[in-house]
């Protein structure tokens, strides 16, 4: 999988790239096509902000995290994407297991006719 990584005010080193790729490898276990993942890393003062966006069939996922430690921010972003992807992949199952609402139709009319006769 090819991940586009953009950085502002810092350079992306090999360990940073490897950490981001390892987080996205965990997401590939959900068996959902990840379309054009893009990560933006920004440093503002002492804080790092990381944003990730990617397309999925019939939707788009977006996560944003910030922390003073870049690797902690990457982990937070990865956990957010995992939650969203888990929800997306199990969305159809939620409706399938719901109990159907049963309605009794016509029982009141039949009782009224019996009383009138």
TrEMBL record:
Which example biological process does GO assign this protein?
A: negative regulation of translational elongation
- Keywords, ordered alphabetically: Stress response, Translation regulation
CDD domains, alphabetized: RaiA
Entry's Gene Ontology cellular component terms: cytosolic small ribosomal subunit
Residues covered by region (Disordered): 87-117
Composition bias, Acidic residues: 106-117
Instruction: Report a single Gene Ontology molecular function.
Output: ribosomal small subunit binding
Q: Which InterPro entries match?
A: HPF/YfiA_ribosome-assoc (IPR050574), RHF-like (IPR036567), RHF/RaiA (IPR003489)
Keyword match Phosphoprotein: no
Listed NCBIfam families: yfiA (TIGR00741)
Question: What is the similarity comment for this entry?
Answer: Belongs to the HPF/YfiA ribosome-associated protein family. YfiA subfamily.
PANTHER family of this UniProt entry? 30S RIBOSOMAL PROTEIN, RIBOSOME-ASSOCIATED INHIBITOR A
This protein's name: Ribosome-associated translation inhibitor RaiA
């Amino acid at each position: 999988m090819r991940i586009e990584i953009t950085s502002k005010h810092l350079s992306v080193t090999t360990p940073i790239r490897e950490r981001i790729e390892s987080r996205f490898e965990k997401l590939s276990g959900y068996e959902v096509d990840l379309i054009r993942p893009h990560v933006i890393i920004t440093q503002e003062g002492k804080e790092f902000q990381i944003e990730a966006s990617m397309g999925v069939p019939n939707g788009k996922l977006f996560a944003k995290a910030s922390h003073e430690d870049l690797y902690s921010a990457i982990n937070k972003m990865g956990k957010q994407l995992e939650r969203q992807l888990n929800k997306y992949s199990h969305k159809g199952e939620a409706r399938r297991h719901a109990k159907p609402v049963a309605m009794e139709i016509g029982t009141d009319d039949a009782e009224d006719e019996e009383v009138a006769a």
